[in-house]
């Protein structure tokens, strides 16, 4: 948050109560939708075919199979200790959102369990269950919450122990869970579970990053200004000029930098090469873009 100082303009505007309430309601709606989508994936695709997810949900699915206890209650109950452990590390707001999302998932699994499963084909269950699972989890993550206590604990442990990354810790936990699934349901089901996890992770990335991915572009050329003007004119985006020094030549260079939609990359290359056929172009994926998009002013 930015605070206004005397004799300076106000950079940010504090949200009104109405705006905060609307934001809260929107977040709650998305968390509920995400929870029900995950419940559909679990109850109508994965669980009937003995295919599991990773983390706490996977543990709960195996525990429900062994004990015949309610899956929703197990997901909620097993997650509580993880939520408590993560309270100080991840903050009050995230923990409250997570508590709400997990509670809604517990309710949703009981509601959806009344319906008959959709398919007994293992490949279809794996692919479509993974897609739905990833989409639901992605919606929940986008709204500052989580369904998996193991992720929260991995973040806490990674910060405290400093011997492994969050991803490595999660991988170790899930490896243990899928090994258990192999003994319990058979190794073919364990492999299908890993495939489900992979599909879901890709869908989560898509939901978090969006289909409309951006690319950052660095262009090295002796005609930097002309290239920048052409990009502004033809693509209607802003560019930034960065001063640099050539490693071999030791000559001063100007790099033209911009962020464009991935679908505009072919057009951008065409525009650049019309100005300088020998221009050096480097493109990189951009996972998130925020801020004002400056356009050419007249």
Walk me through the topology:
Elements: H1 17-46, H2 55-67, H3 71-90, H4 92-112, H5 122-142, H6 149-161, H7 166-185, H8 187-209, E1 214-220, H9 224-235, E2 240-245, E3 252-261, H10 265-275, E4 280-286
Antiparallel strand pairs: 1-3, 1-4, 2-3
Helix pairs in contact: 1-4, 1-5, 2-3, 2-7, 3-4, 3-6, 5-8, 6-7, 7-8, 9-10
Descriptors for this entry?
about 300 residues; alpha+beta; 4-stranded antiparallel beta sheet; 10 helices; about 10% strand; elongated; disordered N terminus; disordered C terminus
Determine the oligomeric state from the structure.
single chain
Shape: elongated
The arrangement of helices and strands along the chain is HHHHHHHHEHEEHE
Rounded to the nearest angstrom, the radius of gyration is 25 Å
Low-confidence stretches: 1-12, 294-298
Helical segment tally? 10
Give the biggest beta sheet.
4 strands, antiparallel
Output the structural class. alpha+beta
Which percent band covers the strand fraction? 5-15%
Amino-to-carboxy terminus distance = 33 Å
Number of strands: 4
Biggest sheet: strands side by side, in what order?
2-3-1-4
- Considering DSSP H and I runs of 4 or more, what fraction of the residues is helical? 55-70%
Average pLDDT metric: 84
């Amino acid at each position: 948050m930015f605070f206004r100082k005397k004799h300076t303009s106000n950079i940010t505007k504090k949200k009104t109560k109405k705006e905060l309430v609307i934001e809260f309601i929107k977040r709650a709606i998305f968390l509920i939708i995400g929870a029900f989508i995950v419940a559909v994936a679990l109850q109508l695709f994965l669980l009937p075919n003995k295919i599991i997810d990773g983390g706490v949900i996977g543990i709960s699915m195996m525990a429900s199979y062994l004990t015949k206890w309610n899956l929703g209650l197990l997901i909620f109950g097993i997650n509580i200790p993880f939520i408590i452990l993560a309270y100080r590390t991840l903050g009050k707001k995230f923990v409250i959102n997570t508590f709400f999302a997990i509670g809604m998932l517990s309710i949703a699994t009981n509601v959806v369990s009344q319906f008959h499963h959709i398919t007994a084909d293992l490949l279809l269950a794996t692919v479509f269950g993974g897609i739905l699972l990833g989409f639901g989890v992605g919606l929940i993550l986008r709204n500052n919450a989580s369904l998996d206590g193991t992720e929260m604990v991995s973040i806490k442990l990674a910060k405290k122990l400093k011997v492994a990354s969050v991803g490595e810790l999660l991988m170790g936990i899930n490896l243990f869970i899928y090994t258990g699934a192999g003994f319990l349901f058979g190794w073919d089901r364990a492999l299908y579970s890993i495939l489900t996890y992979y599909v879901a992770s890709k869908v989560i990335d898509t939901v978090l990053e969006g289909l409309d991915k951006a690319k950052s572009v660095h262009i090295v050329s002796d005609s930097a200004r002309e290239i920048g003007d052409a990009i502004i004119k033809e693509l209607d985006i802003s560019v930034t000029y960065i001063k640099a020094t050539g490693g071999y030549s030791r000559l001063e260079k100007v790099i033209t930098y911009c962020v464009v939609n991935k679908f505009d990359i072919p057009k951008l290359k065409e525009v650049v090469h019309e100005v300088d056929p020998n221009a050096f172009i480097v493109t990189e994926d951009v996972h998130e873009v925020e801020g004002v998009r400056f356009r050419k002013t007249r």
